Amino acid sequence: MRLRLMEATVESLVELGWAGTTTTVVSQRAGVSRGAQLHHFPSKQALVVAAVEHLTDRRRDDMRRHAEGLPEDDRIRGVLEILAAQFVSPVFFAALELWVAARTDAGLRESVGPLERRIGRETHAYAVELLGIDESRGDNRQLVQATLDLVRGLGLAASLSDDTKRRATVLDSWAAVLERELDPS
Amino acid sequence: MRLRLMEATVESLVELGWAGTTTTVVSQRAGVSRGAQLHHFPSKQALVVAAVEHLTDRRRDDMRRHAEGLPEDDRIRGVLEILAAQFVSPVFFAALELWVAARTDAGLRESVGPLERRIGRETHAYAVELLGIDESRGDNRQLVQATLDLVRGLGLAASLSDDTKRRATVLDSWAAVLERELDPS
């Protein structure tokens, strides 16, 4: 029932945005009584933060499975595809609603700030692992950070219109840049 | 009076976010009567779209003036600083509120979509001009796109917490990458 509530929350954030996502809408979508919902999540804030956190973790597990099938050659391009896909996924658009709402809501920012930093750290560590590099060599650390800022920017661009074609050419040339610039371990 | 209304709108979007920005709040902040406001902007949508459009154009004029003082050596790093500054400015955070609201509001998206594409094209052309490169050479076009996606991603990261130090190191190493990778004209 917790999981159903969290899934309904992310769906509601994606379809209706922050303002349209109310605890009433979520309990209806999840088919859960108001009382049961309040038992699990006493407020909208508790619900949305838990939902974005849990589904981001689950999405990372999915990515891990995708990564197992990466070919040895052109591996970097495949890694970029996996990373970029995270930033055009429903849970990214749900998180975007949450981050933007938190910018002007101090109470929300108190829980969203630490969550955003944790997700940022974990995504960074995951990118390093996927690329199979040693972060302490050359500019590797900054290149990984730039890569994640890049795919975050691409995700934001994709939130308003279909940006698939442009994204593919940007990632192609970015993969070539990383191929030349990363210091292999 | 139009300008005062548009400035009050951007300030309100930055401080109160999309939901907190009402035509009443804006007319109070601007010190303009409701009637006069309705005469200039018949709806919240007309007001916010005009405000973000006008202030983005004005901000680009400011950037142009900054760019005149760029030194010849280490020019690329200076250009990156100017471009990145656009994406941590009040008008970017106001635009972010608008883009995100438009994602789940089809009516708003009809005016925001074309505006977002126009700003994107103009910022791209402006970046090419600042860098002083020929877009048709090598991967220059994709590198400029990647640069703008990168600074957009940095802007989003800066919306929740002070990210100044990390941003500087990412831009330092990105400038070095562009120095090596751009095909000079």
Automatic annotation (TrEMBL), chains A, B:
Quote one Gene Ontology molecular function term.
DNA-binding transcription factor activity
Organism listed in the record:
Aeromicrobium fastidiosum
Pinpoint the HTH tetR-type domain residues.
Answer: 1-59
- UniProt xrefs under PROSITE patterns: HTH_TETR_2 (PS50977)
Which domain of life does this protein belong to? Bacteria
Q: Provide this UniProt record's keywords sorted from A to Z.
A: DNA-binding
Q: Where is the DNA-binding region?
A: 22-41
What's the protein called, per UniProt?
A: TetR family transcriptional regulator
